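Appendix B. Extra example for self-study. Work through it before the problem class; the solution is given directly after the inputs so you can check yourself.
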Amino acid sequence: MSLQEKYKVLLDTAQSSGVNDLNYAEMDGVLQIRGTAPNADVKNKLWEIYGNIDPNFQTGDVVLNVDVATEVPGSQVKVITENSNLNIRKGPGTDQPIVGKAAKGEIITLISKANDQWWLVRTKDNEEGYCYAQYLESV
Amino acid sequence: MKFSKLTFCLLATTVVLSFTACKSGLSDEKLEEKIENALTGRKTVDVDVEKGKVILSGSVASEKEKQQVESIAKTAGDKDIKSIQNNIVVSAPVSSTPAPIETSNNDAVLGAAVNTFVKDFPTVQASVKDGVISVTGTLEQPKIITLKQGLDNLNPKKVDLSGIVVKK
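Solution. Structure tokens for the complete assembly:
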């Protein structure tokens, strides 16, 4: 069974739920999937389906990198750390000094995306800096 | 009568002057720097600021991107911007076929990003070889998805989690 057949439900759902610029290809035995989900719910749904086909992602035959369209510059994003505060840094990197913190659950403004990992944000107290994108979700 | 008119004029001028002084919170240079900072990575876009008026120029691939650049500039400059003039030219994309999917081919860069990310997962260790991320250790089941999402965002060739012992 090819990977595209194994993950047919995942690819079909991505198509039917309006994922933009959907692009996928089997490369070196891994199904690489890229695209932009219209909202965080669609992204979460795709991950749920992926997790159902490959429990705990143990097989490692998919790399699913889908971002969310509503997470655009100027939009509000929520801090989704486990329980700690989110560090806001002077530049994009953990070697950069911390210039501020955002609490778990706090809503902050996304100014721009330096890259996939580091986003420039502004807090309600007008603190500006870069933080790790994994801990931000559109509201 | 003449005297009071003059006083009024002087007063008005002072008020206007102090107003202008208050209004320009950031110098043009600082504002330009701030906007350029927010537009990091967009090498085809130029920013100019003259007396609080922001002029964007250069070229981008789509109308959507042109508007996106403007909105980034607006958000970054916020209240310090008096107006924005968007002179960015939209140049047609070279081809309409989707770009090939890119995966990381630089282990040093990928490794550094992986190390940064897994710092938040103290019970696992990760290594990178030929674009493949291998992770070992133990992890609570609900955290697996966060780990996998973060690693997939780095565009590796593969993420191997088979070495992880999953705790319920």
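Self-check: The first helix of chain A runs from residue 3 to 6. If your reasoning did not lead you there, revisit section 3.
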